[in-house]
Design a protein that fits this description.
Layout lengths: L9 H17 L8 H20 L7 H26 L6 H7 L17 E9 L2 E8 L12 E10 L11 E6 L3 E5 L9 E10 L11 E4 L7 E2 L1
Antiparallel strand pairs: 1-2, 1-8, 2-5, 3-4, 3-6, 6-7
Helix pairs in contact: 1-2, 2-3
Length: about 230
Amino acid sequence: MAKSFLPNTDAALLAWSLNFKTLIQAGAVSYGLTVPLATAYGVLHDAYADALAAADPAIRTRGSVAAKNTARANLKADARLLDRLVQGTASVSDAQKRDLGLNVPSAPTPIPPPADEPGLDILSVSKWTVKIKLHDTASDAKRGKPPGVIGAAIFTHVGATPPADIGAWQFQGNTGRTKLDVPFPNTLAAGTQVWIAAFWFNGRKQSGPACTPVPTTLQGSGVPMAA
């Protein structure tokens, strides 16, 4: 949760509010507000200032403290409303927001395309299905996806030699999993050489480099084997 722009202590809140009141009353429109809104806020500020003075520890009573708390709550509620209006006005610059004592939303940090290829391990081969595991090559433990990666694209090729161009491969689909079955046509004979490759992609569907193609041999209708 973002930190509130409103100070916690009464003294700090009063100082913040005085600055806010002064600026919006001097140029309400430039902050995306109206003169009546700025005037109404000034009334709430003055009421809070008076109530705070009356609640001075030397003279305060239960009633004056309660009145101060009510004035404080009214001021903060209106300040939050005006903050939403200012934040929602495109013409108000970040510098103006800072001058008012408001939060300036930080720009999101873009996630770069994956820098590394995935590790691809053959776990087992059963008939025409190859079970594979993808992992982060930068992780010593070979765990999961790298930071910023949401999935991988899987490609296959049937033949003795894998194509150099990934565009010549058969695209099998995208996956968010790191362990999955890769099926091949059941018309392929036992002993057929196949290849599997993959690349990571981020949330913006930007891809990284493809891994080195990994070969295996289909078992067809024969006995399943572990890779």
